Amino acid sequence: MSKEHVTLVVNGQTYKKDVDSRMLLSDFLRETLGLTGTHVGCEHGVCGSCTVLINGKSARTCLSFAVQCDGFEITTVEGLGTVNEMHPVQQAFWEKHGLQCGFCTPGMMIAAVDLLNENPNPDREDIVEAVSGNLCRCTGYQTIIESVERAAELMRNSERG
Ligand code: FES
Ligand code: FES
After folding, report:
1. Is the same domain home to 75 and 114?
2. This prediction's pTM
């Protein structure tokens, strides 16, 4: 299989790699970079568990080849925050118990970040729509929606300083 040289900025760090031309972005993140926070469920663009931000917008990594993202900026769940310094969305999912097994959680959180970057004051309908492309088979959506509402509140509060 032919190899191509790509340069991607992932979570603020620049990576220059030779990749198979048909390598999925999900495999590039997980296998080449070891960023296994991006989960792979359906591999068909249905479940949303593989969602990351590509140039600031949420997108499914199982539907993109790494070579298509040459020169792009990617943010995975690992780039949101750390255990000691959580992103408000991570803090909110923790506070509101927005997860059980955690499989869908990285994708849910990235979808939430995308929504809140666009709309700091989402109503319930906006939140439902934003996470509607992400499937959760265990938590039920109630606490996930409450988590996104809480994240919006935390982000507004931090802006007020
Ligand atoms: S693994 Fe990509 S949408 Fe399900
Ligand atoms: S928390 Fe298990 S799939 Fe959502």
Report:
1. no
2. 0.96
